[in-house]
Amino acid sequence: MCTLEKTGTNIFILTLTGADEHRLNPTLIDSILSALRQAKSQATKGSVLITTSRGKFFSNGFDLAWAQAASSKPKATERLHHMVELLKPVVAELISLPMPTIAAVNGHAAAAGLILALSHDYIHMKRDRGVLYMSEVDIGLPFPDYFTALFRAKVGSPSVLRDVLLRGAKVKGDEAVRRGIVEAAHDNEERLSEATMRLGEQLASRKWLGEIYKEIRKSLYPELCGVLGLDHPIIAKL
Q: Which of 2, 76, 158, 231 is most buried, most CB within 10 Å of its CB?
C-alpha cells in the first residue's frame, strides 16, 4: 500500500509503505493511482509531488509471484498482462500531473519499478545501496510499448538504451548520474531525503500554474503521450 501526505510547503509525499519489495500487484497499483488522483484533485499553484518508499527497495517490479500463483500458465500470462495494463494509467497520470514530480529512489528500482521512477520529472537515488535494472531481457519477457516509449522519451543516449534494455545492465548511483538517467546520487537515505525535499521546495517556490506545467511536459514527449492515449497539448491564445 501507499500513503499520501501534504506538507506545509505544498509538497505531496507519496510513500510506498512496508519493508517488502513493493512489488506492483493490482492492490498496490490501485493504491498509487488513487493517491496520484487525490494529489491532482488537491493541487494548487506551486504544488510538487515526491514519491519515495520504505525499506531497501523502491520497487522490484511487477508481482510475478502473484501472476505465477494462477492455476495455469495461460491464466498466469493473463495476470501479468493485467498488471501491465493497470500500470499504464499510473504512468499516464504522472506524465499529465499538474505539478513537478520527483522520485526519491532509496533502494532497488527494477523493471516496472524503474518505469515508475522514470515517469517522474526528476530522479534522485542513493549511492550506497540500490541499482536501476530492467530485468526483462534476463527473464525472457518483452517490453510493453509504453515502457520503451518512456525510455526513448527520458533517456537520450542510444548506448544507454542499449545497455539498460538489451544487456540488462545493473546501474548504480554514480554511473546513473554519469549516464544521464538520474539527476543526483546521495550517500545515504537522510541526504537523499534532504536533497529531494530541498528540490521540492525550490520548485514549489516558483508557484507555477499546474495546468500550464503539465501541458509543457506533455509537449516534450509526443510519442509517449500518443502511446498513453493522452490528449495533445492545448495551445493557449496569446
A: 2
